[in-house]
Amino acid sequence: MADDTGRFGVGAVHLGVPNRRQFFQLGAGAAAGWSLAGSAFAQTERPTSPPDKPRGQVIAALSQEPTVFHPLMPGIEVDQGIWWQVFSPLWYIDPDGNFVPDLAREVPTLENGGLSADGLTWKIKLRSDVKWHDGTPFTAEDVKFSIELINNPGFRARSRVGHSLVKDITVVAPDEIHWRMEAPYSPYMSILASFTFIVPKHILEKVSDPNASPFHNAPVGTGPFRWGERVPGDHIQLNAHTGYHGKGPYVERVVFKYIPDLTVLYTQFRTGQVDYTGLAGILPNFVQEAKTLKGRKIFVSSTSSVEHIAPNLDFGPFTDRAVREALYLGINKQAIIDALYYGLPTQTESFVPQQAWSFQQGLPQHKYDPAKANALLDAAGWVRGSSGIREKGGVKLEFTNSTTAGSAVREQCQQLLIQDWRAIGAAMRVNNMPAAVIWGDFWQQSKFNSVIVGVNFMLGSDPDVTPRFGSGAIPAKGGRGYNTYQYQSAEADRLLSQGAKQFDLAQRKATYGELQKLIRNDLAILPLFQSFIAEGIKEGLQGFRPNINMSINSWNMREWYWA
């Protein structure tokens, strides 16, 4: 494993970075406290020294096309691949769960005066050597503007969770900003690290409509790469920002190439047309072969994403918990894992990754039991018709299931689900769509019946799932968040509120343990497994570091270079 201090400068990883115990005592959220599963790091070679100036390029393949370039607006994971290169947060989370300063000079703690003992007052000291890509100096005014933009009711913010509690923002100096939290909110440190990129006041304050401007198609940031060009349907090119304030970048450009067919994507990696397999990684059926390729390195690592079936809880049959339980009992999970994923993933019952400090052990374990599923539906009054499909009160137990068109493994999974559920009297039809369509309003406004999707529910490294399961986070009902399941539970809301105000780690673990039990009992989602990702890079490309605390492993492309 590469030496962290060699990447960021001696001591930079640890300077001002609270460990998890200190962090909760100080009242400022949670460091991850968990490490990468598996042996991905063992496959890395010890890096040579990076070049003195940017050299070469990296072609990164993506199976979906990024379309949202404003980093504070609703987007999907591939959009984050662009955001992490163009923009910067105040701090980020490294693979070991440490908070690492970026635009901030240090991570605020009680010890350094950045946090008050009650967690309500935050004082952030900023770097004074940062410039926007257009040469304008970065200042505390940009931080103030970014938080206020998120809270602007006329702006279509990705989420206001945490940000809405920020009050009395005061710019003390160009390199220092203070604010007060309306209430203690422990996950806010992770939100600032993982989801809050700072945008330029000097450009966006002049825009009449914050939801539409030239900036949205040619963003200006403080990140290691600046906007180059976009050819819709083909690629995005980012060029090195030689005035970047951190280490790197060490390559002249990054080209994100869209290859929607994952088999074609792997073929292009195998033949050397792409240097990195990107967010989707390598299909499970190619992993063993990929490991034998000369001049290639393969990393297999756990991710925070949970592959699951997302039911729309406001859709007819799915409002009945008995139906959800029967469908869950009717899934032959292990057969799906073995047949389609070559046994690589692990079954799970929780939305929390099994490596997390907050993971709840001992949740009820799924059992494939179609006989019990049939009995449950019989008892709930769902009667089989002449076609074998059940019906209750004039409502048939039939529904569509959607996922990204061209995702071969998920499409095969759908075929297995059709068979599994037909055996218990449920009829499922496939309704797949291109990524840009399905993950737009169809998903965000809950226009689906059910979806196969992988979601990282964590707020960076924090288990607060208010944006996913809070009653006020349902976009289809005017809420701000990602609760596209339309899950509503007074008890879940109570636990979410309680956990967000706690700073003692043991107390938070207990609270989020109860929440995991509740979500599992309510079957708000039908979890299949905790995802893994197999990614490939060309031999000689240094600096790649899988990070379970991030949604994407291209988070640190600024550190990548050719040996």
From TrEMBL:
Gene Ontology cellular component annotations, sorted alphabetically? ATP-binding cassette (ABC) transporter complex; outer membrane-bounded periplasmic space
Q: Which Gene3D superfamilies match?
A: Dipeptide-binding Protein, Domain 1, Dipeptide-binding Protein, Domain 3, Periplasmic binding protein-like II
Q: InterPro entries per the record? A: Peptide/Ni-bd, SBP_5, SBP_5_dom, TAT_signal
Transmembrane regions listed in the UniProt entry: none
Residues in Solute-binding protein family domain copies: 99-471
Q: Which domain of life is it from?
A: Bacteria
GO BP terms in the entry: peptide transport
Q: Mind listing the UniProt keywords for this protein, alphabetically?
A: Signal
Q: Where in the cell is it found?
A: Periplasm
Grouped into one coarse class, the protein's main location is: periplasm
Recorded GO molecular functions are:
peptide transmembrane transporter activity
Q: Which family does it belong to?
A: Belongs to the bacterial solute-binding protein 5 family.
PANTHER family for the chain: D,D-DIPEPTIDE-BINDING PERIPLASMIC PROTEIN DDPA-RELATED (PTHR30290:SF38), PERIPLASMIC BINDING COMPONENT OF ABC TRANSPORTER (PTHR30290)
Record's protein name: Peptide/nickel transport system substrate-binding protein
